[in-house]
Amino acid sequence: MPTVSVFEDELKEVLGQDLTEESFDQLCFEFGLELDEVTSEYEMYTRERGYDAKEADKKSKRVIYKVDVPANRYDLLCLEGLTTALKVFRGLTKPPTYTLDPPVQTNKALTMTVSPETAQVRPYVVCAILRGIQFDEARYQSFIDLQDKLHQNICRRRTLASMGTHDLSKIEGPFTYDALPPDSFTFVPLGQTEEMDGNRMMEVLSHHQQLKAYLPIIKDAPLYPAIRDAKKRILSLPPIINSEFSKITLDTRDVFIECTCTDLTKGKTAVNMLVTAFSKYSAKPFTVEPVPVTYSAGHASKWAGRTMVTPDLTSRVIEVSGLRLRKALAIEDKIGDEQVASDLTRMFLPSKVVDAAKDTLQVTIPVTRSDVMHECDLIEDLAISYGYNNLDATVPLT
User: Fold this and answer.
1) Burial class of residue 342, CB neighbours in 10 A (0-12, 13-18, 19+)
2) CA–CA distances in Å: residue 79 to residues 15, 83, 385
3) Are 261 and 154 a contacting pair, CB within 8 Å?
4) Which SS3 state, helix, strand or coil, does residue 28 take?
5) Quick one: pLDDT band at residue 61, thresholds 50, 70, 90?
6) CA-only gyration radius of the chain, Å
7) Is the pLDDT of residue 111 over 90?
8) Per-residue pLDDT band at 353 (split at 50, 70, 90)
9) Would you say 255 and 263 are in contact if contact means Cβ atoms under 8 Å apart?
10) By percentage, how much of the chain surpasses pLDDT 70?
11) Which listed residue, of 104, 150, 275, 323, carries a Cα 20 to 30 Å from 140's Cα?
């Protein structure tokens, strides 16, 4: 089960200054989460290395809450997603609506073209742009941390998908996604100063504490995936590393996101989670700029010769029987459909009664709730919102 670490003072800033450890623990319980630990960087460091450790006094004593979240709730893997969901649950705000903004008109087309050769290694790519984003140190670190958590979870340690983020002001469209022989290009990897080809990169990063684990994903492949801009500069060599020259900083305002993948659904979901969480900091909150991705005619997929506009932030809308949901929890005589709609809305599933005579509810499932796949998922969320402790305890008949 993934764990999200958030600073107490940042939680209070969003959820209210009256928040205490006890009240947050209770809120997590009611929402179906668990407050696993209350600690600090100083406490974690000294616990591991001792109070006399040389660097101990340099560590922060800011209180950190460690929260365990369900493995399929990718939308809760960062402060931004967690606090937005909790504010909606507490009735402090309504679920935001995520929209695509028309592309900004420039003299360089911000499009992506996928070459046929990529089908041999990582066939697909999903792109997006966040405009006018405002980073500070905390937001920047949260942005990086969320990518790491998504890579470890839904992306299955980058084997199914991996994301690269770039400062749009440093690169030029149109972009291409190629697969190249490792000795046919050079670039300066992120955090390095030496320009190197793919073979040299493998040698250098084989000693890198974090990145060496991902090298086997493409090491023996005859072609390496590569994202390039209009000047043929390497932006990233997925799923390993980005380029030094295109890296984002605290001064970055426009972020170009690319996610190469072997599983297109996982890639789309990963990008959706990243852009929905951080579009709140965009110049137009909760808006994302789409990028057309065109697959070359010879590409070995159903997308050959076609264009896919990414990301797709379209919500799913379904109709369900409110009575059936209530009966599943044996609360059909305790609440009506209006209350069911209200309870589901608290769980980030905007709902309303559309036909009282037929007992029909309309439920909107935003892209952030990729875990909702069946009516039983709605029943689970209704149980959480209604309160497990409010359900009647009965002995099973068999």
Assistant:
1) middle
2) 11, 6, 21
3) no
4) helix
5) confident
6) 23
7) yes
8) very high
9) no
10) 97
11) 104
Angle at CA of residue 170, ends 166 and 176, nearest 5°? 65
CA-CA distance, 280 to 7, in Å (whole number)? 19
**Letter for the amino acid at 12?**
K
Backbone angles phi, psi at 277, to 5 degrees: -70, -40
CB distance 235 to 195 below 8 Å? no
**The dihedral sign for the CA sequence 178, 179, 183, 189:** positive
Is the pLDDT confidence value at 59 over 90? no
CA distance 46 to 70: 29
Residue in the structure block whose two tokens are 């800033």: 13
Per DSSP, which regions of 181-301 are E strands? 224-228, 234-237, 241-242, 255-261, 287-288, 291-295
Dihedral pair phi/psi, residue 162, rounded to 5°:
-155, 140
- Assigned token pair, 300: 């070995």
The pLDDT tens digits of the residues spanning 194-210 come to: 999 999 999 999 999 99
Residue 211 main-chain phi, psi, to 5 deg: -80, -20
Q: How far is CA 275 from the centre of its chain?
A: 7
Q: Which 3 state secondary structure label does DSSP give 142?
A: helix
Backbone dihedral region for residue 394 (phi beyond 0: left; psi -120 to 50: alpha; all else: beta): beta
